[in-house]
Design brief:
Layout: H1 19-27, E1 46-51, E2 57-62, E3 67-71
Antiparallel strand pairs: 1-2, 2-3
Length: about 70
């Protein structure tokens, strides 16, 4: 995943807005949330995923028909 600049306008060559200005404008914006990623070993590919609302418990179903239950806390 990579952060992109929301402004779709590309500054023209020789314009007053150069790359440093775009980066500074971008850094002054609101702070973005931190994305945390952890890998959970799982046999086969995930066919379905279900979660228990309000809890860190999730269940997966793989292509071989096996169900896995995980505490992702």
């Amino acid at each position: 995943m990579a952060k992109t600049i929301d402004d779709d306008e590309v500054p023209e060559i020789g314009s007053d807005e150069d790359e440093e200005d775009v980066i500074e404008k971008h850094n002054q914006g609101p702070r973005e949330p931190v994305i945390r990623f952890e890998s959970i070993p799982h046999r086969g590919s995930v066919n379905r995923l279900r979660s228990m609302y309000g809890t860190p418990i999730v269940a997966t179903w793989n292509d071989e028909g096996e169900v896995g239950i995980y505490n992702i806390q």
